[in-house]
Amino acid sequence: MPAPRAASAAPLLLLRLHGRVQRLGPTGRALLWSVAAGVIFSLLNALVRALSQQLHPMQAQFLRYFFGFAVMLPLVWHAGLAAFRPQRVSGQFLRGAVHALGLVLWFLALPRIPLADMTAIGFTGPLFIMIGAWLFLAEPMRWERWLATGIGFAGMVVMLAPKLAGSGAQAGGWHLVMLASAPVFAVSFLLTKALTRTETTAVIVFWQALTVTLFSLPLALPVWQWPDLWQWAGFAVCGLLGSLGHYCLTRSYRHADISATQSAKFLDLVWAALLGLAISGDVPSASTLAGGVVISLATLWLVQREARTRMRAS
After folding, report:
1. From its phi and psi, is residue 281 left (phi > 0), alpha (psi between -120 and 50) or beta?
2. pLDDT digits (tens, 9 = 90+) for 114-130
3. Does the global pTM surpass 0.90?
């Protein structure tokens, strides 16, 4: 008798969970999609970092996006080519070129700096994105969004200040290379937000994988070496995680202003710290735990504020 009760309770639990998610409003749902993307990208970054230490970073970049393209081919086959034909082909190639440029910088620095440092440097991206969304997409910049992002940035500083202070001169140079990728990625994400006005999520993710693969191939060929079986399998997993992560990220942009989702990005450092603990046994420091609490509280506060603002407006 307990088994049927458990089976019948599962759909009810899912319905209640769906109702609570719907009550969060568009911005709350966008933040949930953004958090999901952060978890997936953290797993992806850890795996790609390990693979890029075994093969040349330019080859790792190509294979990561080649498999991201490959895992979407069954969807294209099922839905038909017409379903993935973009309305703005030039916009798709522009976005792919910009993203490929950011990836070149990112992959070159990735094997040479710690995963947590890489994640934290990426947190400068929301600042570039917010300013760009305000200037070029005419998105409103309410004080809650500025405050939540500012608090999240402060939490990141609390986490990483002791770690970055110990970086050597050579490591610091690669930190600057990683930092240079942040504004480039910001432009790519702003282009993604603009494309959501005319393109479906699946079309954007598919064409990103295709265009980045094409732009990355000439960089990979001069340094090519054949991967072994486990490396092929690792890149296949990377392709799946990458496509899934970009799907979640694009869905978050579709639900709300891109600036409203940026505070959730600061949670990525929490996931990076947990992965470091699970993979290499690195115990999170007190500063990491303190900063994680600050970031989490800022994100939850913004969800509640945005939901209340939506309710008053309706």
Report:
1. left
2. 777 777 777 777 777 77
3. no
